[in-house]
Every structure is written in C-alpha cells, then in structure tokens.
Structures
1.
Amino acid sequence: MSDLRDAKPWLIYVLLGCSLATNVMLLLARGASDKPDSHAIVQAPIDAAGSAAPVNGSAAATGAVHEAAVQPASGQAVPSTAPTAGWTVLRSKVEQSLARTFQLAGGESGDALASVYTRLFVWDLELRRDLQAGDSIAVVWRHAPDGLPEIAAASLQSEKLGRTVAAYHWQAPGDPFPSYWHLDGTEAPLRLRDGPLAQYEQITSVLKDRPTHKGMDFKTPVGTPVSAPRPGTVTRVNWNWTANGNCVEIRYDDGVLGKFLHLSENRVAEGARVSVGQVIALTGNTGHSTAPHLHYQLNRGEKTIDPLDYHGTIRRSLNAEQIAAMRRDVAGFESMLAEPAVR
Ligand SMILES: [Zn+2]
C-alpha cells in the first residue's frame, strides 16, 4: 500500500489492502497513467538456483525472443505429462476492453480471470491502448481449491503485435514458485534488476495499473528476506504503523527514498548505514495489508518514481533442457489453447 499519512479515511478504504478484489477493480479502471514503456528489457538466463544474471544484448532491449533456443525443432507433437482433466477453455474476441470481455465470457469469475490474465501480458503491451478490434483471447482455467480461478495457460492474438502471445504456468527447476513462461523459454513477467527480493511468488501490482497506488507489490510468504537494493542510510522505521505496518525507509546515496512496507520484522535501525544486498527486513502482512506481500515504493522529492524505470528490468529465460521439459509438461494445455481447426 501507499504511504497513507495524509489520506482521508474513505480513501484509505479505497486504497486498502492491495487485495485481489481491489486490484481487480482498480486494475481494470486504470488508464490515466498510460505511457510508453521506457525501461529497457535485458534477457537473462535462469541458473540452477533460479536467480537471473543480467546479460547485455542489443536485441534484448526490444524484448526480442530467443527463437534459436526453442526446442524441439522436429515439428512433432510433444507428449504431455500433465493431466488436463478439470480444466476448461474460455475463448473470446475482445469486446471493448479486457474487463468487458472477461465479464461477458467468464461470468462471475470474469473479473478475477481478467486480473490474472492482465498480469501475464501487461509486460509486452499497453493493454488498454494496444488492444484492437479483431484481437482474441483464450484461457485454460479452473477453480482452484480456494475458489479463486487458476490459469494454466493463456494467449492473446494481437493485431498490434502481429502474432499470438501465449504464457504457460510452470515451475522451473530450482525456483521456489511457479511462474508463467512463453514456449520459447522466456519468462512472461519481467523482474526488477537488483530489486529488494531475490525470490517472490508474483508481482501483483505495478505503478501503471492505477495512479492511486504508489508502489510495486510483490506477493511473497511472510519472512522473505528484503535486501537493500542500493547503498544508503535508514531515515525512518515504523512511521504510521496503522497503515504501513512495520516499515523501513532508506535514503539511497543518489537521494532517492526507498520505502519497504508491511514487514514482519525490521533488521535495521534509524540512522544505520546499509550496503547493497544487506538484509534490512523480512516481509510480512502488517498494517493495511490483506495478504502477505512487500510494498516497494520510490520517491525523489515529492515525486513517485517507478521501480521498473529506476532499476531497469530483466527477463529470465530457460535453458534448452528446461525448455524441452516445460514444453513436454504444458503440451496438453498448448493443444487446448490452440484455435479450433477452421473447416
Ligand atoms: Zn502496495
């Protein structure tokens, strides 16, 4: 959540929680902050430990995919090892907006599906601006045991991109959480370069989702170590506890203020110097927070800045062996996602 010191009581409710429902509604109501992506994308291989090392490459800056790494090249169907029973396909032409499309096609699960779906493609498209008549969506989904919709695979046929983008839910070896991957082995969601969390479950909110939310939210279990992304000095801890819970503010040496909210435990005191990578806190679910997550916010003076711009981003990619395993595992969903044959 944002820093709520000056918020009016009703506004606190509006901003409350970074909850799924709140995110869904506000995510779909966004639009005031549309702007071109200015952060460069750097491709990064995934190593055995699941961490990503930035690598330089001019083609990477355009988000170009690693076609050469895709396996197998035989063109033969890959046998699937994943059961697809219980999963259903939702398929639709885009109607007005993604929100409307999912409301029409997804019934009472439409809003929640739209939220998860948006999170898969927001990295490559300004969905509000770039969706066009004639675009179509497909989603393989089911109700998870907790009642929320779970997406195994999703695709967007985009006139703007001139191709169909598809993402598959899959857990890479060494990763603590599943993520979503393109069939060429690139990860669908981008990651912060040198961000405060080495591992997290999912980015659930970025600044461009909605102008009222001033930070980036990372869904992650309570107790995940938070590292200082830059050298700096701790300026405040635990201010406005009701809203922010346990929190730490660090003035980076370049003058930018980094705020880390909803922590379970602070590991630094006001006035302390911190070095890059030093664990400053553990994530939590304190203050106005409805689920365990880290809210990471950056300010330069009065201005809120986007961590995606400030840090830059990386896009991880699987190695050839991992791609083969992933493609084998998701082949059943790939078939379900594919357009029905035109006769
Ligand atoms: Zn937040």
2.
Amino acid sequence: MTANNKPVIAYNDLREWLAEAERLGEVRIVRDADWKEDVGLVAEAILRAENGPCVVFEDVQGCPKGFRLLLNMFAGRRRNMTLGFPTELTKWELSDGYREAFLTGRHNIPHEIVETGPIFENILMGDEIDVEKFPSPIWHDKDGGRYIGTGTYSITRDPDDGWLNAGAYRGQVFDKNTVGILMAPGHHGAIHCEKYFKKGEPMPVAMVVGGDPLAFLLGGLEAPYGVFEFDMIGGMRGKPEKMVRGKITGLPIPANAEIVIEGYVHPEKRIVEGPFGEWTGHYAGGAKPCTVIDVKAIYHRNDPILLGVPPMGAGPDEMARYRAVMRSATIKQNMTNAGVPDVQQVWCHEVGGARMFHGVSIKQRYPGHATQAGLIAAQCGGSAYASKYIVVTDEDIDVTSLEALIWAMLTRSDPRESIQIIDNAWDSPADPRIPPEKRMTGDMTHSVAVINACRPFHWRDKFPISNTPTAEIARKARDKFGWLLDGLQS
Ligand SMILES: Cc1cc2nc3c(=O)[nH]c(=O)nc-3n(C[C@H](O)[C@H](O)[C@H](O)COP(=O)(O)O)c2cc1C
Ligand SMILES: [Mn+2]
C-alpha cells in the first residue's frame, strides 16, 4: 500500500507479474517435464504448501520450443503482491484490505477497445489451429484427459442485452480444434449459453487460458450479475483494461493475454468430458456429455505462458487459499450491503475448497441478529453456490482459525436449538453427496446448515466467561517462559 493506504497492483499482465515474483525470489524453473505425469507430480508437491514456489515449466516434452506453463501463482509473498498489498499482511488483513479497497464504493471503469496488442503476435486459423501443441497436462492420474483450461476464464456476451461476462469454466482438450467448456447451471456463462441455444444459435466464446492473474482471480469469483469482470479490474487498476476484438466473434479479448481460444459452442454438440479431480476432492461429476468450443482461431504471444490452477483434492491448496481471501471479502461486503450490522470477520475455510464451510463473527446487537447474519451469509451472492455449513459466533473469536471456530461451535451451540436448515439451495455438481438419482434429474441442490454459535442473546450476560488467555497474557507467557520449549519437538 502507498502512504495513503491504497494498494498498488504492480503489473499489467502475466509477464510483468512473473518479473515481480522473480524479484521476490520465488520462481523456480523445471525443464523437460512430461505433461502426462511430471506436471501433475510437481502440482502435488508444491500446491498444498502455503509458501510453495511459483514453477515455470520450459521445454515441456513434445511441445514447441518456447511454450511455457506457469503453476502456483497465489502463494508465498507473491500472494499479497498479486492483490497489490504489502507482503507482511496476514491472510485476514489481506482479505479485509482487499474488501475495503476494492469492494466498498469503488467504481468500475469500462474496458477500452484498442486496435491490436501482443495477443495478436501469433494468429492461427484454419489448418494451423492445433490446441494440442500447448503444454496442457493430465493433472491427476484418474483424469479423463488433458486440461488446457484450469487457470482460465471465458468471455461471452448476453444475446439479448449485450452484457459481457468472464467466468472460469474448465476446459478439456478433445482434439486439435475442440475444447470442452463446462458451465454449471446458474453460472453466468451458462445463462448466456441457454439464451443462444433457445434461439437455436451457437454461442460465441473467447476462452483465455493464460493471462493476467488478476483477471483469472476475478473470473473465478462471484462478481454481480450483469457486471463485466474486466470493468471491475479496470476499477481496481484505476485505468481501463485494454481489449482487442476477436477476429471471428468480435468479442473483447485482453490485449496482453498469453493464449486465447476463440470459437463457437453449438447447441447440438456434446462430447463426454471428464472425469476430472475436482475441488471437492472427489470425481463427483464423473464423465458426462459436455458443451464444447468449436475452435475457429487461436491467438498467442511469442513464447506463450499457459496458466495452470488445478484443484488438488482433499485439503487446502492454492485454489482454496485464493478463494478464501477473495470470497471471504465478497461475502462480508455482501452482508454489509444487505444491511447486516456489525459483521466483524468472515472466513471461508480453505478446507472444502473455501466454498463449503464459513465462519462469521458478529458483535450481537439484538435478538435474532445471529440468525439474520447466518442466513444471509449462507445465501448471498458470494456464498449461495455450494456453501454447506455456516457458523456464526461472537466477536471474541478469530474465525480464520479453524480450531477457534470449532471450539466456539462446540461450546456455544446446542445442536437441537442452534442449527437451522435451508432446503433446496444451489449446489455445485462437484458435490459428491448429491444422490445419483437426483443428479440424473439435473437437480443440483442440497441443504445448508446455519449454526448459531453465539452466546444466546437473551442470557449472554450469564454465559460463563472464557478461560482462554487474552492475547496479552499469551504473549507474556511466551516472552517470559517460552524458553522452556526450546530444543523440544513442538
Ligand atoms: C480454477 C477454477 C475452475 C472452475 N471450474 C469451473 C467449471 O468447470 N465450471 C463451473 O461452472 N464453474 C467453475 N468454477 C467456478 C466459477 O468460475 C465461479 O463460480 C465464477 O463465479 C463463475 O463466473 P460467473 O459468476 O461469471 O458465472 C471454477 C473456478 C475456478 C477458479
Ligand atoms: Mn460473472
């Protein structure tokens, strides 16, 4: 942040971002890897660690010289750099700083169409189209194929009112000019697609598979309906995002992206997609017919960089960590905008992909405040998709700590009294707990538990006080007698 506390995003595209990451000393090069197995093994080795390196694969076997793949953008000190904040902030300070800086009263700046940009350094059409030459890996050993679209987002346009959207939908490689695009029901790309298909028309699409990390982060986040994510990014950078027009569809494409696949999604065309190791840690979606992009053009920069962001199954990974930072901020702001007072902290826990288990702390003001906070936290724009358990607790709990949050739940709730269930809520197809018969009907809904772990409002003054030491006493104990632990295994 600068002196007046404004974050500064120090890069405009993936290359400038990479230079910043190099300055932090966090980039490692892997040469001569095999996309069938090695890349997935590297992902397994590094993506779970909070401070794992950014890895750039060069000379991937079987791929053209100069083509690269970048893995693990959001970790280490580059985590904060990516959002424009000082490296020493904690994940909570980063999330709340991001919210304050970018989600409160900041105006979007419309993107600007420019004539040309580095993305047009290579234009492949007709017989030159070959999606298979990029270093798309098999990410997990049981995956059904190579995935080019993980660190991706797809740009589409509403055929009725022209609303542009950028959303992250995974993309499997099928052949030289066919790539899957899996849009879950209710996502903005799926809403656009349905409208085209109702008219019997193909949907034009531009799938970006390598580019500005910030654009990827916004593409994978629940931005409001009707808003173009690139106009939000313009607001974040304080200047319009430069975009060129795709030569086939006329859709806006980031002028400084690395690799873009442009084409059409046809109403009648489906190919069996998956299985793919999903963020819920299961192959829940299985292998099913899926919409595909009929590729009409590929654009890429010289020595292009494919961005890889695969989910790594059970346990926190890079994807869960960035979602936690950004979704927690989104939900906290959604709640405030919906009129919930005194929301102190919201944390979407990394376990469960930062989508399924959220802690909220409030300073209780009136009877029913906790219920209001819990129900809105469960079903606002940032949370409605796939959230499963929400725990609302008091302001003395640091809800970013899983231990502290569970402790509050265990000691301040009574299961029969404190759990409210919401039925028929929006779920992700990646949820393995959707029963097979229900999944077959396309009814991707589930129930959500809202757990009130606040001291009961009407007898809060009689609630036993906590013997958890204050931060001051804990520090005093550490300073004075912490030496007793020296030399012992913790
Ligand atoms: C790496 C990554 C992969 C994702 N894959 C999919 C996917 O395959 N299908 C899907 O519907 N949503 C997927 N999502 C979630 C959506 O991108 C996310 O919910 C986003 O809000 C969708 O954009 P939209 O709100 O503009 O529709 C993915 C998110 C990320 C970050
Ligand atoms: Mn959107």
